[in-house]
């Protein structure tokens, strides 16, 4: 076997993907720049590390399960004045995730709750955190079927091993008492293990009605609110204001 081919073969065996793909370029650059042996080895190792980081980030982004990607750069703070850019920038520093604080965005439809939740989650992925995004109704489905479905079990395990769990749209669909119980168990399991972002169109006082059990709701709220930042997003629906018309 030719030496170059052997390098590629061994790189593959050792999963050195950067070297495998770039060996020609690395050797050429080293020759052109008259690199020292040390510098050449360093550049290979750096290339390997940054490729691994990139792959890991791509995997975290896929695992996060965002329905769409929303970025904070595209959020119009003049339209949504209940939260300031300064506050969001503070949140984007992400230290609240290390301290396992929770964020709650309450408000009517279309005011940007999901946009904010995804943008913050996206930045968390970029910063190396494990994130899971799930709508409340999907979450209920996964929790109810985790014993009989491998997919659901996998999703629940992923949620339980996340640093940040985003639960979107709590309150849109009614919750049975069994579901409220499962939700309570999940919140208990995540308590002081992970941060939560919850978006809801219902105020806290309506949660009890939604879950049909005041004591359980109090216990859930108690855990969530223990370390929590609450944002009451109000205003008009961005969707309705920026509706695209055919005419
Ligand atoms: P909610 O979750 O509060 O119902 P969304 O976050 O889903 O609302 O927002 C609805 C749509 O409007 C999304 O496409 C979102 O990107 C956009 N949107 C909402 N608020 C803003 C805003 N302040 N700036 C830019 N886009 C916004
Ligand atoms: Mg939403």
Automatic annotation (TrEMBL):
Species of origin: Clostridium oryzae
UniProt KW ATP-binding keyword: yes
Record GO biological process: DNA replication
Nucleotide-binding listed as a keyword: yes
CDD domains (alphabetical): AAA
Domain of life (superkingdom): Bacteria
One Pfam assignment: IstB_IS21
Sequence ranges assigned to domain AAA+ ATPase in this UniProt record: 99-232
NCBIfam families: IS21_help_AAA
PANTHER family xrefs: ATP-BINDING PROTEIN RV3427C IN INSERTION SEQUENCE-RELATED (PTHR30050:SF4), CHROMOSOMAL REPLICATION INITIATOR PROTEIN DNAA (PTHR30050)
Name of the protein in question: Chromosomal replication initiator protein DnaA
Entry keywords, A to Z: ATP-binding, Nucleotide-binding
Family according to the record: Belongs to the IS21/IS1162 putative ATP-binding protein family.
UniProt-listed SMART domains: AAA
């Amino acid at each position: 076997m030719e030496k170059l081919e052997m390098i590629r073969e061994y790189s593959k065996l050792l999963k050195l993907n950067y070297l495998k793909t770039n060996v020609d370029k690395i050797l050429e650059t080293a020759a052109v720049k008259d690199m020292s042996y040390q510098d050449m080895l360093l550049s290979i190792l750096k290339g390997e590390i940054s490729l691994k980081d990139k792959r890991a980030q791509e995997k975290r982004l896929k695992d996060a399960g965002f329905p769409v990607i929303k970025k904070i750069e595209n959020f119009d703070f003049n339209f949504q004045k209940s939260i300031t850019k300064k506050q969001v920038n503070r949140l984007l520093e992400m230290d609240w995730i290390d301290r396992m604080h929770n964020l709650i965005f309450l408000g009517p439809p279309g005011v940007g709750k999901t946009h904010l939740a995804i943008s913050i989650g996206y930045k968390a992925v970029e910063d190396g955190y494990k994130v899971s995004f799930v709508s409340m109704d999907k979450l209920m489905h996964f929790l109810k079927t985790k014993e009989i479905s491998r997919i659901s079990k996998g999703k629940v395990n992923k949620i339980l091993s996340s640093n940040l769990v985003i639960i979107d749209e709590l309150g849109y669909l009614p919750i049975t008492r069994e579901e409220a119980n499962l939700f309570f168990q999940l919140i208990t399991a995540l308590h002081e293990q992970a941060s939560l972002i919850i978006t809801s169109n219902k105020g806290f006082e309506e949660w009890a009605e939604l879950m049909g059990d005041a004591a359980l709701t109090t216990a859930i709220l108690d855990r969530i609110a223990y370390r929590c930042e609450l944002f009451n997003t109000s205003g008009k629906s961005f969707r309705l204001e920026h509706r695209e018309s055919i005419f």
